[in-house]
Structures are given as C-alpha cells and as structure tokens.
Amino acid sequence: MKVYSWGRLSGEPHAVSMLASTRRLPPLADGQRALPHGMGRSYGDSCLNPQGALWKTTALDHYVSFDPETGLLVCEAGILLRDIQRTFIPRGWILPVTPGTQLVTVGGAIANDVHGKNHHVHGSFGDHVRQLRLLRTDGSVIECGPTENADWFAATVGGLGLTGVITQACLQLRPVAGPWMETETRPYHSLDDFFELADASEAQWEHTVSWIDCMSGSHSRGIFMRGNPATADNRQPEPAAKALTVPLVPPVSLINPLSLRPFNTAYFHAHARKTGRRIQHYASYFYPLDNLLEWNRIYGPRGFYQYQSVVPRHVGQDAVAAMLKEITRSGAGSFLAVLKTFGNRQALGMMSFPQPGVTLALDFPNKGAPTLALFERLDAIVREAGGRLYMAKDARMPRDLFEAGYPRLAEFLNYRDPGLSSALSRRLIGY
Amino acid sequence: MSSMRKIVIVGATSAMAEHCARLWLQQGVDEMVLIGRDMQRTDRVAADLRVRAPQCRIQTICSDFLQPEAIASTVEQACATISPDIVLIAHGSLPEQEVCQQDLQDNRTALEVNAISPVLFAEAFATHLEQAGQGKLVLIGSVAGDRGRKSNYVYGAAKGLVTRYAQGLQHRFAGSRIQVVLVKPGPTDTPMTAHLKSSGAKLASVEQVAGNIVSGVSRGKSVIYAPAKWQLIMLIIRHLPGFVFNKLDI
Ligand SMILES: Cc1cc2nc3c(=O)[nH]c(=O)nc-3n(C[C@H](O)[C@H](O)[C@H](O)COP(=O)(O)OP(=O)(O)OC[C@H]3O[C@@H](n4cnc5c(N)ncnc54)[C@H](O)[C@@H]3O)c2cc1C
Ligand SMILES: NC(=O)c1ccc[n+]([C@@H]2O[C@H](COP(=O)([O-])OP(=O)(O)OC[C@H]3O[C@@H](n4cnc5c(N)ncnc54)[C@H](OP(=O)(O)O)[C@@H]3O)[C@@H](O)[C@H]2O)c1
Asked: Which of A196, B39, B197, B212 is deepest in the core (most CB within 10 A)?
C-alpha cells in the first residue's frame, strides 16, 4: 500500500505488515529489507522504505510492569506517549521528555532521540531510557542500556531504526503533582531580546520555546513561551477538547505568502497583548496541534518540508539572523516556525540530533525547485556555522552536510542490522 | 458501575477483546479472568492490564479451545474463581477461503475455531449464568455472518452459526436477568486483518470498535454492529435480490 510520512512529499508502495509479537519478526524474502515504523510522525523519509517491507509497531502496545516506588516503567515499543501520559499523570508520574506531539511511539521517540522544550534541564528522550531490547533480523536479541552493552545503546538511541527493532524499553518517569502547567508568554522584538529571554529563563523555567515570525526579516519578532509544572493539583479536569480532522487535501497549499503575512501579524499581536502568566493543561500546552488531526494536509497535494537545524551558540545569533533573512527574502516560509535554545549537554546517541546551541525549525510548502534552492542557501549557513540538520525532519539534505554534522557516522555503521534499510539510509549512507 | 465488577474474557489475546478490557478497567472492574490458548501471550495481556489497573485482580487460565472437556473444565474453573457479570467470547481466526475450498481439513478447522469453539464456551457459561441468575454473555460474530458470499463463506457460515446460536440463547433467556449480546464488527484494524490492510482495505480502528462494544453492552443492546454504520449496510446487503447480489464481486 502507499505510505506517506508526515510531510506527505511522496506516497510510494510499501509491503506493510503489523508486528504482533515481540519475539519474532516476519521473514524477509531474499534481498528484501524492512524498516520499523511507528506513527509515521517523522516529516521526511527516515520512516519510509519504498518498495521494501514496513513493519508497523503500533500493536506492540503493552505495558510490562510499573514500579510505583521508583517510577520505572517497562513497556513495549509501539505504545504511544499519549497513552503513557494518560495512564500515569493521574498517578503522579510523567514522561520527562516529549516532543511537540504525543502521537508518537516509544520506539520512534528513541530512534530519533527526540527532544522537548526542556532540553536544558532533562536532555533528550534517550537520557531517560534505562534499558531497551533490540530484536535483530537474524533473530538475535540484544539487551542494552547506559552501562550494559553501552555501545549498542548509543547506536540505537537516535539510530533511526537501523540497528534492529526495539521491542521493549524501560523508562524512568518523573514525579509530577498533576496535569497542570504554569506558563508565561512574552513577546520579543529582536534576536538579542530572544537570547536574553532564553538565558534568563533557563534557571527558573523547565520549558522554554518560542514562535518566531519568519516574515519579519531582520526585525525578528516572536512570542517566547516558558512553563513549569504547577505544584498544586486542585483543579477540575478540563473537558476533553474535541478532535477535528482536516477532511481532505486541498488542491493547492492553503499556506502561501498572501495568507501568511497577515496571519503572522495577527498572531503576534494577539499573543503580545495577552502576555503574562496562566495555568494550562499539559496537553494543550505541550501538544497544541494534536487536536487538529491530519493538519499536515493543509499544504496541498505536493506536501511540505520541515527544515530544522541546530547551530553552536557562539555563532548562533548570526547564523539564525542569516537564515531568517534568506527566508523572508524568499517569502516561502510558513506559520510553523520555532526557535529555541538547547542546553549545554551532548546527547548520548551516536546519531542524536540535539547538541548545545540554538535550533530553528520551519515548515515550507513544497514548491519544487525554488524551495530546494532556498534550502541550499540555508545549508550553506548551517555548514559554515558547524551545525547539523535533524534527520527526523529531513528529506533532502546533501551527503556532505550530513557527514559533517554527524561525525560518529563511521562508528554507527558497525551496529547496523543488514536486514533493515530506509529511504533516508539509502539516500545518505549507501543502503 | 456495580453491574460490571467481574468479567471473564475468552480469547483474551484478541486485539478487540484487549481494547474492550482496557475500557472496562477504566470504568472500574474488581476482578477479571483471562482465558487464552497460549500462556505466554495471555500473560502478556494480563501484565499490561495489571499496569493499567493495579486495583483489579487479574487471573489467567490457559485452555485447549477445541476439546469439549477442556472447555467445560475451563469454564468451571473460571466460574469457581469469580461469578462473572460479563463474559466476552472473542476468539476467532480469518481463514483463507481458497485454502478451505481445497483442503477440507483446513475448512473443518476454520469451522471449529470460529463456530463450534465459541458456542461450546457460550453454552457452558450459559449454564453458570443461569445458576447465578444474572450476567451478560457477549459473543463476537461478524458482519460476514449476515450473508454468505464467495470470498469468505467458510468464515461467514461459522459466524452465521454463532448468530443463530446467540438468537437461540436470547430466546431461552428472554425475560430473565441474563442477557445475551451478539457483536457484529465490520472490517477492523487488528492482527487478523493485517494482510487486508496491506492491500489497502479501509478498516475501522480497534479502539473505535471496542468503544462501540463496551457502550453497547452497558446500554443493554442485544445486537451491536460496530461501527454502527454496518447495520444499514448489512440491512441492504441481506435484502438484495439474488440476481443483483450474484453480480457483485464481494
Ligand atoms: C507536530 C509534530 C511535532 C513534533 N515535534 C517534535 C519535537 O518537538 N521534538 C522532536 O524531537 N521531534 C518532534 N517531532 C518529530 C517526531 O517526534 C519524531 O519524528 C518521532 O520519531 C516520530 O515517532 P513515530 O512513532 O511516529 O516514528 P516514525 O516516524 O514512524 O519513525 C521514526 C523512526 O523511528 C524508527 N522506529 C520506529 N519504531 C521503532 C522501533 N520499535 N524500533 C526501532 N526503530 C523504530 C523508524 O524506523 C524511523 O527511523 C514532531 C513531529 C510532529 C508531527
Ligand atoms: N478484525 C476484524 O476485521 C473482524 C471483523 C469481524 C469480526 N471479527 C471477530 O472479532 C473477534 C476478535 O478478533 P480480532 O480482530 O481481535 O483478531 P485478533 O487480534 O487476531 O485475535 C484473534 C483471537 O483469536 C484467537 N485464536 C486465533 N486462532 C485460534 C485458534 N485456532 N484457536 C483458538 N483461538 C484462536 C487468538 O489467540 P492467540 O493470541 O493465541 O493466537 C486471539 O485471541 C474474532 O471473533 C473475529 O472473528 C473480527
């Protein structure tokens, strides 16, 4: 069947099957390769394997054990972060790190070593995995963790599903008082402003992130958002928000320069006006888009790219300014644009994305050649700054930028499972 | 919710049954007995449900599903453990129609797994519910049991037998505090239909179907189409005149 990733750039045939057992993998035909696939929330081609086998993991959705004394949760890898949050927040435990959508699997979160808004405090997802079990296509099982088979662990965290199928994981949850967040929004009017706010917030705020108006050019403006888990849990639960689904793929992208500029301006002013503190439910704070199901369809039949880079802090401000200038000049950006700082810590995965510095993520409707040409100009800035691009979002980065950004690649290759392959691995690593 | 404090599930490793169990546990269940044919797989489901609902006592029984004596003693054991308010009989397997036409042994197995086995369980539980004087007996049939068609009439006939059997039980317990419920799911995204999905079939989510089952059972329905749209679709299909129906390639 045809399978799309979140960016909907291609819909190519895959031999899809659903993994039912954590002990056995389906047999592969001679020369055939497979790829584990969670919720397909990766934007580019890292979760695709056109013409090959795709093993959906979402039926591996069983908890194995939970220790209410220590907060250690053992679960299968196809379980959704949403389900873990729903099961455990009412019992006083929360996932320490989650991405901007909770509709992803534990396996997908490990394989991309995903980050949240609290990188400066809690690092990335892999930092909270105590053990994982890897099932290889030759039938062997490897248990690994930060100390046990640590090399296999470092290869598999951020390993893009290429080292074997993660069947189960032991996660360290964190105590939490309840589902509420204390949040604050502040407008900023320049990158100086942004970095000042980000630095000043690190000590007091667990979560920091910002929306940036990518049409504002050299006069960068945006909304800075910070939050902490609220200490008291004395509120009534919010009525569950009703999920809406974008019902069809419009013939053209609804995101275009005509709609974008006024929209961004309105958004900025609306939020600049209602700054200040408030109490918010964790789901609407962390996963604002999850109630608009299939919003990725609004970009039309050609789909969209997300371009996410991280550049080191000492060149960060100049590099971000240069990228924003290119984007404003091209008029090609979109509403979804995120600027945030990472804390000063290295991720443990050989191929993990987070590193100290500042990360900029933007969606771009796919307009073909002009879009790709813009990316080349952005690549040049990232390359010059010594940064890297996020593979969970990528569908087109050039090999040299990949190799420069991920210096542990050669080491990683020793741990690949020869029966697994993805469109991304074929594009960037040979098979 | 005092009416659903104790639940027995036969074929507890079925994805549909698991999702029903998860929903029931959210509503509050005191005790559950899970019956499966493979200890490891049944324990996996039990472990999951225990994490979801630590307050519920969950036990497992491993049984042969085809031997009448084994079925009788398993039901005996389950009902000695708890006196169930709800019994869900969920197991089944989707055979390949063509294989069944060629190999009569496979044909027979398909009929036994999908028809004989569930109704023997149902009969054995009916006796216990009758003695207890109350309870709901829920059987999973299928829309495929509503009319035979060339692409899967072996499975369809088996599900048709379950349908008639459930009707008979409903008749027998009419006016009592024992209720017999027949569930007829449409094509649903579970391991059973994984091969259909890869060929692009449109499948309902198992969460949705389980939600339909759980709410239908608590509202006291006697036949539950899940999702509900299948009621109308099957009404039409059942009533199509033969000369029209026979032209359909379904
Ligand atoms: C709205 C939105 C917001 C997002 N925000 C963030 C964010 O803030 N931070 C961030 O880091 N990311 C973010 N992402 C990206 C997303 O978190 C990652 O792409 C994530 O990995 C997707 O998980 P998935 O279960 O959908 O996996 P898929 O996309 O299906 O697969 C991702 C990779 O994991 C591998 N994989 C999946 N399951 C297994 C397994 N069991 N064993 C081995 N390998 C496996 C696949 O082979 C593939 O390489 C966001 C995505 C969306 C759509
Ligand atoms: N999915 C659909 O589209 C659909 C549509 C209509 C009706 N149904 C019915 O819904 C019920 C649940 O199915 P499901 O979709 O949840 O499928 P499933 O997840 O594949 O579960 C099938 C169940 O049947 C058991 N089983 C399979 N073969 C068996 C055998 N030979 N003997 C004993 N038990 C056996 C399995 O036990 P093991 O785990 O031990 O294998 C498992 O518990 C079935 O009665 C099915 O016929 C399903």
From this structure: B212
